[in-house]
Amino acid sequence: VTAVPHLIVAANELCRPETADQARALLREADALFQEHGAATPADDRWRWSVMLAKARIRLALAVRDLRGLDTASQALLTLGTESAHLPTLKFAIETRMTLSYERNDWDGLLKHAHARLLLDRDHPSADARGLELWARGEAEAAHGNPDTALEVLAEGLTLADRPRPAVMARLARAQAELMVAVGWGREARVAVDDYALHARSSDDPADIARARLLACAVARLEARPEVALVDVRRAARELQGEQRRGVDTRVELELA
Predict the structure, then answer these.
(1) Helix 4-12 with 43-64: angle, nearest 10 deg
(2) Residue 175: CB partners within 8 Å, gap ≥ 6?
(3) Using CB atoms within 10 A as the burial measure, which of 73, 120, 122, 166 is most buried?
(4) Residue 157: enclosing H or E segment and its boundaries?
């Protein structure tokens, strides 16, 4: 049974689309060992390994955009965090539920989870919680056809005195850049996309750099510079060479076509 955490760590290293089957096999093996021998394992280890399994399943689901798997794994992690009142686990689980709501275009769910994340910090919301709440509000406003309000909210998030962690800043910058491109604001969109590109370098999502390239391509088209757009999309294709990134590959193929 002591092999369980090692199998999970090995699976985490393979949580990419091209190695997803290997990751699944390792997680199945870890789960089988855990189910067979877990009862004889100290309670603290059982809880820790359960959390590790849930987080690994979340990473794998995100890598292959398996929303059903993401739902199941994040709900399991939320239950583990709630039963133990373990704040870091609860925060991770709720932030994952936010990602799931965003991927499903469930704006009410996104706002609900963002509010729950704020409440976890009680009377002193962290920069991360505030940034995520503003990101959620901005995405919801944009989805409901209120781009001006959305941009105001996102700008507030990007200029917080206490800066959220890089991954949250990248979400805010991406939302702002995508919205400005969508409404066709050429000059402002160029600035926003450049800002997103800077944040993408420190994001925990490797696809952010390619997304920023594709948005730069869209801006070049707005500026009637097709030759620059072609350069940007080819750079995105090179950055993805040999790898698959959820939500990006198809867009690159469409642009190259």
Answers:
(1) 20
(2) 135, 138, 139, 142, 150, 154
(3) 73
(4) helix 147-158
